[in-house]
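User: Predict structure, ligand glutamine.
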Amino acid sequence: MTVRELNENVDKILQDIPDRDFDKTCILEDFGNITREALALHPEEEISPDRCQKVLGAANTRALGYPLQYILGEWEFYGLKFRVGEGVLIPRADTEALVDVSLVQLRKMHKKLDRKVHVIDLCSGSGCVAISIAKKMEEAAQLYAVELSGEAFPYLSENVRNNNVNVRLFRGDVMDGRMLDNFRDPIDDERFIPIDCIVANPPYLTDDEMSNLQREVTFEPETALYGGSDGLKFYRVIACMWNYLLTPGGLMIFEVGDNESAIVSRILEENGFGDIFTEKDGAGIIRVVGGHKM
Ligand code: GLN
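Assistant: Predicted complex:
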């Protein structure tokens, strides 16, 4: 099969996928080693049956609605590369707003305190939030990441290693108070390490949203998506329980679902946070809510 024929075949296989040009380009490059330039410059070049089969296999999988990110096994977030696959939530561009706001706040905090700031990322998943913050803050922050899922955890450790950052990892349930014990002061066991910031992109979809998922999202882990019937259970527990580790003035900052910003602001206020702030994502939807411990 020639490059041109293979391209036409993939195009036909992906005909029902919206914006299929992007998916097609990624699949041809990744599985066929065929760049856009090669397609334009050498359309009649023969491709080995083995390579054709790999490309067509990937295209057929994509045509079933399987996420492109899982097919490629890698995805970019905040200019960094993350390994992804079944069992771990795919990093979303929307979540870059959470990293942006956290970095602004953490830099301010670091300047004011004049020491390393300690940051915990809860429900870390692929680690995209913790790793991006660690990369940008460099020596100015110590990151910790907590993840429950045994399927997601290997991706988290691999992504920390591949991005060459210092993030300390803990496997466990953020809803379980015993997880706080991981943050006891190693010298004085009665005390906890003072934490300056807790950041989280927890599961936040509601019952309604779970029953109307886009086809691609149905292949992602439910545990990373579902936030209880009203979508808010993680915010309630994190704001009430993890609050305990924060220093006075410490920051709690969340990614929130569509239409959840007002109620999450209220949850923060009810748990002793003030100076509440919000930020929109690239689509103009309020995606980030944060506050300081009073
Ligand atoms: N933003 C994701 C989605 O709607 C949900 C991620 C999450 O629950 N934190 O697909």
